[in-house]
Amino acid sequence: MTVSIDKTDDVWTIIHDRPEARNAVDSDHAKSLTDAFLEFENGPAKAAVFWGKGGNFCAGWDLKMASTLSDPELGEPYYEKHAFPIGSAPSTLGPMGPSRLELSKPVIGAIEGAAVAGGMELALWCDIRVMAETAYQGVYCRRWGVTLMDGGTVRLPRLIGQGKALEIALTGRKVEAEECYRIGLAEKVVPHGEARTAAEAMAHEIARFPQAAVRADRRSIIETRGMPMREALKVEWANGLEAIRREGTAGAGRFRDGAGRHGDFSNI
Protein backbone atom coordinates (compact mmCIF):
# COMPACT_ATOMS: atom_id res chain seq x y z
CA MET A 1 0.00 0.00 0.00
CA THR A 2 1.56 3.28 -1.10
CA VAL A 3 -0.60 5.52 1.11
CA SER A 4 -1.55 4.63 4.66
CA ILE A 5 -2.80 6.39 7.77
CA ASP A 6 -1.48 5.98 11.30
CA LYS A 7 -4.43 6.92 13.50
CA THR A 8 -4.74 8.09 17.06
CA ASP A 9 -7.90 9.62 18.47
CA ASP A 10 -6.80 13.19 17.79
CA VAL A 11 -3.95 13.11 15.25
CA TRP A 12 -3.68 11.12 12.04
CA THR A 13 -0.43 10.79 10.08
CA ILE A 14 -0.89 10.33 6.34
CA ILE A 15 2.08 8.39 5.02
CA HIS A 16 3.18 8.35 1.40
CA ASP A 17 5.23 5.21 0.86
CA ARG A 18 6.68 4.96 -2.62
CA PRO A 19 10.43 5.09 -1.89
CA GLU A 20 11.48 3.54 -5.20
CA ALA A 21 10.30 6.78 -6.86
CA ARG A 22 11.28 9.11 -3.97
CA ASN A 23 7.53 9.38 -3.34
CA ALA A 24 6.82 10.88 -6.76
CA VAL A 25 3.11 11.01 -7.58
CA ASP A 26 1.32 9.39 -10.50
CA SER A 27 -2.45 9.20 -11.05
CA ASP A 28 -3.03 6.29 -8.69
CA HIS A 29 -1.05 7.86 -5.88
CA ALA A 30 -2.70 11.25 -6.43
CA LYS A 31 -6.10 9.65 -5.89
CA SER A 32 -4.91 7.66 -2.87
CA LEU A 33 -3.50 10.80 -1.21
CA THR A 34 -6.71 12.71 -1.91
CA ASP A 35 -8.84 9.90 -0.51
CA ALA A 36 -6.70 9.80 2.64
CA PHE A 37 -7.08 13.52 3.29
CA LEU A 38 -10.83 13.39 2.62
CA GLU A 39 -11.05 10.57 5.15
CA PHE A 40 -9.19 12.78 7.63
CA GLU A 41 -11.47 15.74 6.91
CA ASN A 42 -14.59 13.67 7.49
CA GLY A 43 -13.22 11.70 10.42
CA PRO A 44 -12.76 12.38 14.15
CA ALA A 45 -9.12 13.51 14.10
CA LYS A 46 -8.38 17.12 14.93
CA ALA A 47 -5.07 17.56 13.08
CA ALA A 48 -3.03 15.66 10.51
CA VAL A 49 0.64 15.17 9.73
CA PHE A 50 1.73 14.54 6.14
CA TRP A 51 4.96 12.52 5.90
CA GLY A 52 6.88 10.71 3.18
CA LYS A 53 8.41 7.38 4.14
CA GLY A 54 11.87 6.35 3.00
CA GLY A 55 13.80 9.56 3.50
CA ASN A 56 12.03 11.94 1.11
CA PHE A 57 8.82 13.94 1.40
CA CYS A 58 8.02 13.94 -2.32
CA ALA A 59 10.08 14.30 -5.50
CA GLY A 60 7.14 15.70 -7.47
CA TRP A 61 5.09 14.57 -10.41
CA ASP A 62 6.06 11.16 -11.77
CA LEU A 63 7.98 12.15 -14.91
CA LYS A 64 8.02 8.60 -16.26
CA MET A 65 4.23 8.73 -16.31
CA ALA A 66 4.31 12.31 -17.61
CA SER A 67 6.48 11.26 -20.56
CA THR A 68 3.66 9.04 -21.84
CA LEU A 69 1.32 12.05 -22.10
CA SER A 70 3.03 13.23 -25.28
CA ASP A 71 0.73 10.70 -26.95
CA PRO A 72 -2.49 12.73 -27.53
CA GLU A 73 -4.62 9.64 -26.88
CA LEU A 74 -3.20 9.52 -23.36
CA GLY A 75 -2.41 13.18 -22.76
CA GLU A 76 -5.68 14.84 -23.64
CA PRO A 77 -7.88 12.60 -21.43
CA TYR A 78 -5.42 13.14 -18.56
CA TYR A 79 -5.50 16.93 -18.90
CA GLU A 80 -9.27 16.95 -19.29
CA LYS A 81 -9.67 14.82 -16.16
CA HIS A 82 -7.58 17.26 -14.12
CA ALA A 83 -8.91 20.49 -15.64
CA PHE A 84 -9.84 23.06 -13.03
CA PRO A 85 -13.67 23.33 -12.94
CA ILE A 86 -15.44 26.45 -14.13
CA GLY A 87 -17.32 28.64 -11.67
CA SER A 88 -18.30 27.22 -8.31
CA ALA A 89 -18.25 23.56 -9.34
CA PRO A 90 -16.39 21.26 -6.92
CA SER A 91 -12.65 21.05 -7.51
CA THR A 92 -11.25 17.95 -9.13
CA LEU A 93 -8.08 16.40 -7.78
CA GLY A 94 -4.88 18.04 -8.97
CA PRO A 95 -2.10 16.13 -10.73
CA MET A 96 -0.43 15.86 -7.29
CA GLY A 97 -3.67 14.85 -5.59
CA PRO A 98 -4.94 16.89 -2.63
CA SER A 99 -3.50 20.25 -3.70
CA ARG A 100 -6.96 21.68 -4.48
CA LEU A 101 -8.65 20.52 -1.29
CA GLU A 102 -9.73 23.23 1.15
CA LEU A 103 -9.88 21.43 4.46
CA SER A 104 -11.36 22.74 7.69
CA LYS A 105 -8.67 21.18 9.91
CA PRO A 106 -4.90 21.80 10.06
CA VAL A 107 -2.29 19.74 8.22
CA ILE A 108 1.38 19.83 9.21
CA GLY A 109 3.97 18.75 6.65
CA ALA A 110 6.83 16.68 8.08
CA ILE A 111 9.61 17.10 5.55
CA GLU A 112 12.70 14.92 5.31
CA GLY A 113 14.90 14.90 2.23
CA ALA A 114 13.45 16.30 -0.98
CA ALA A 115 10.24 18.30 -1.28
CA VAL A 116 10.76 19.44 -4.84
CA ALA A 117 8.69 20.39 -7.88
CA GLY A 118 5.18 19.06 -7.24
CA GLY A 119 6.40 17.82 -3.86
CA MET A 120 7.17 21.41 -2.95
CA GLU A 121 3.63 22.29 -4.00
CA LEU A 122 2.29 19.68 -1.60
CA ALA A 123 4.48 21.14 1.15
CA LEU A 124 3.11 24.61 0.37
CA TRP A 125 -0.42 23.21 0.58
CA CYS A 126 0.16 22.22 4.20
CA ASP A 127 -0.73 24.77 6.88
CA ILE A 128 2.65 24.43 8.62
CA ARG A 129 5.94 22.88 7.53
CA VAL A 130 8.41 21.15 9.88
CA MET A 131 11.68 20.45 8.06
CA ALA A 132 14.65 18.33 9.00
CA GLU A 133 17.87 20.34 8.87
CA THR A 134 19.01 18.21 5.90
CA ALA A 135 15.76 18.61 3.95
CA TYR A 136 15.27 20.96 1.02
CA GLN A 137 12.72 22.41 -1.36
CA GLY A 138 12.98 23.69 -4.92
CA VAL A 139 11.24 24.04 -8.26
CA TYR A 140 13.26 21.23 -9.80
CA CYS A 141 10.70 20.75 -12.57
CA ARG A 142 12.14 23.95 -14.09
CA ARG A 143 14.90 21.92 -15.79
CA TRP A 144 12.36 19.69 -17.58
CA GLY A 145 9.94 22.33 -18.85
CA VAL A 146 7.23 21.24 -16.42
CA THR A 147 5.17 24.04 -14.89
CA LEU A 148 3.77 24.44 -11.40
CA MET A 149 0.09 23.50 -11.63
CA ASP A 150 -0.76 22.40 -8.08
CA GLY A 151 -0.85 25.80 -6.43
CA GLY A 152 2.86 26.58 -6.45
CA THR A 153 2.65 29.90 -8.28
CA VAL A 154 -0.24 30.94 -6.00
CA ARG A 155 0.96 29.82 -2.58
CA LEU A 156 4.69 30.52 -2.94
CA PRO A 157 4.43 34.32 -3.30
CA ARG A 158 1.78 34.46 -0.59
CA LEU A 159 4.26 32.91 1.82
CA ILE A 160 7.49 34.65 0.85
CA GLY A 161 6.62 37.60 -1.40
CA GLN A 162 6.63 38.02 -5.16
CA GLY A 163 10.28 38.82 -5.77
CA LYS A 164 11.71 35.90 -3.81
CA ALA A 165 9.05 33.59 -5.25
CA LEU A 166 10.07 34.59 -8.77
CA GLU A 167 13.75 34.07 -8.01
CA ILE A 168 13.17 30.57 -6.59
CA ALA A 169 10.67 29.51 -9.26
CA LEU A 170 12.60 30.82 -12.26
CA THR A 171 16.04 29.56 -11.24
CA GLY A 172 14.80 26.19 -9.99
CA ARG A 173 17.56 26.18 -7.40
CA LYS A 174 17.83 24.14 -4.21
CA VAL A 175 16.44 25.87 -1.11
CA GLU A 176 17.85 24.26 2.00
CA ALA A 177 16.04 24.03 5.32
CA GLU A 178 17.80 26.94 7.03
CA GLU A 179 16.89 29.30 4.20
CA CYS A 180 13.35 27.91 4.06
CA TYR A 181 12.96 28.81 7.72
CA ARG A 182 14.49 32.25 7.23
CA ILE A 183 12.22 33.25 4.33
CA GLY A 184 8.97 31.64 5.49
CA LEU A 185 8.90 28.31 3.65
CA ALA A 186 9.22 26.42 6.94
CA GLU A 187 8.02 27.18 10.44
CA LYS A 188 10.34 24.81 12.33
CA VAL A 189 13.67 23.09 11.62
CA VAL A 190 14.65 19.98 13.57
CA PRO A 191 17.53 17.47 13.50
CA HIS A 192 17.71 14.94 10.68
CA GLY A 193 15.20 12.13 11.12
CA GLU A 194 13.01 13.97 13.62
CA ALA A 195 10.56 15.81 11.35
CA ARG A 196 7.70 13.36 11.83
CA THR A 197 8.09 13.21 15.61
CA ALA A 198 8.24 17.00 15.89
CA ALA A 199 5.27 17.49 13.56
CA GLU A 200 3.17 14.96 15.49
CA ALA A 201 4.05 16.66 18.77
CA MET A 202 2.90 19.99 17.33
CA ALA A 203 -0.30 18.39 16.00
CA HIS A 204 -1.10 16.96 19.44
CA GLU A 205 -0.49 20.38 21.00
CA ILE A 206 -3.00 21.91 18.58
CA ALA A 207 -5.46 19.05 19.08
CA ARG A 208 -5.71 19.55 22.84
CA PHE A 209 -7.29 23.00 22.51
CA PRO A 210 -11.03 23.68 22.04
CA GLN A 211 -11.44 23.00 18.34
CA ALA A 212 -14.16 25.45 17.31
CA ALA A 213 -11.81 28.32 18.18
CA VAL A 214 -8.81 26.67 16.52
CA ARG A 215 -10.73 26.19 13.28
CA ALA A 216 -12.34 29.63 13.37
CA ASP A 217 -8.97 31.38 13.70
CA ARG A 218 -7.42 29.13 11.04
CA ARG A 219 -10.31 29.89 8.70
CA SER A 220 -10.06 33.64 9.30
CA ILE A 221 -6.31 33.71 8.65
CA ILE A 222 -6.80 31.87 5.36
CA GLU A 223 -9.97 33.58 4.16
CA THR A 224 -8.95 37.18 4.86
CA ARG A 225 -5.65 37.17 2.97
CA GLY A 226 -5.71 40.03 0.50
CA MET A 227 -9.05 41.43 1.65
CA PRO A 228 -9.51 45.13 2.44
CA MET A 229 -9.24 45.64 6.19
CA ARG A 230 -12.92 46.36 6.81
CA GLU A 231 -14.10 43.33 4.84
CA ALA A 232 -11.50 41.14 6.57
CA LEU A 233 -12.61 42.30 10.01
CA LYS A 234 -16.20 41.37 9.16
CA VAL A 235 -15.10 37.84 8.22
CA GLU A 236 -13.05 37.53 11.39
CA TRP A 237 -16.01 38.64 13.50
CA ALA A 238 -18.41 36.19 11.85
CA ASN A 239 -16.02 33.27 12.20
CA GLY A 240 -15.09 34.15 15.77
CA LEU A 241 -18.62 34.79 16.99
CA GLU A 242 -19.74 31.27 16.16
CA ALA A 243 -16.80 29.80 18.08
CA ILE A 244 -17.26 32.12 21.06
CA ARG A 245 -20.89 31.03 21.35
CA ARG A 246 -19.95 27.36 21.10
CA GLU A 247 -16.83 27.31 23.29
CA GLY A 248 -15.54 30.68 24.40
CA THR A 249 -17.98 31.57 27.14
CA ALA A 250 -17.73 28.06 28.58
CA GLY A 251 -13.94 28.39 28.55
CA ALA A 252 -14.17 31.71 30.35
CA GLY A 253 -16.22 29.93 32.98
CA ARG A 254 -13.50 27.33 33.47
CA PHE A 255 -10.95 30.12 33.98
CA ARG A 256 -13.28 31.80 36.48
CA ASP A 257 -13.48 28.55 38.38
CA GLY A 258 -9.71 28.23 38.66
CA ALA A 259 -8.39 26.51 35.51
CA GLY A 260 -5.18 27.89 34.02
CA ARG A 261 -4.19 29.99 37.00
CA HIS A 262 -0.50 30.78 37.62
CA GLY A 263 0.44 29.80 34.08
CA ASP A 264 -0.56 26.15 34.51
CA PHE A 265 -2.28 25.05 31.29
CA SER A 266 -1.70 21.31 31.74
CA ASN A 267 -5.42 20.65 32.20
CA ILE A 268 -7.42 22.98 30.02
Overall description:
The protein is α/β, with parallel strands linked by helices and 268 residues long. The chain has 2 domains: 3-207, 2-enoyl-CoA Hydratase, Chain A, domain 1 (Alpha-Beta Complex), CATH 3.90.226; 211-263. The protein is 44% helix and 14% strand. It is built from 10 helices and 9 strands. It has helices at 27-42, 63-67, 72-81, 118-125, 152-160, 162-171, 177-183, 195-207, 211-223, 229-256, and strands at residues 3-7, 11-16, 47-52, 107-111, 114-116, 128-132, 136-138, 175-176, 188-190. The strands form 2 sheets. It has a 6-stranded mixed beta sheet, sandwiched between helices. Helix 5 (152-160) crosses helix 6 and helix 9 packs antiparallel against helix 10. The two termini are 39 Å apart. The mean pLDDT is 93.
Q: Which range best describes the helical content: under 10%, 10-25%, 25-40%, 40-55%, 55-70% or over 70%?
A: 40-55%
Approximately what portion of the residues adopt beta-strand conformation?
Answer: 5-15%
C-alpha geometry? globular
Class of the largest domain in CATH? Alpha Beta
Write the CATH fold name of the largest domain.
2-enoyl-CoA Hydratase, Chain A, domain 1
- Kindly report the name of the CATH homologous superfamily of the largest domain: 2-enoyl-CoA Hydratase, Chain A, domain 1
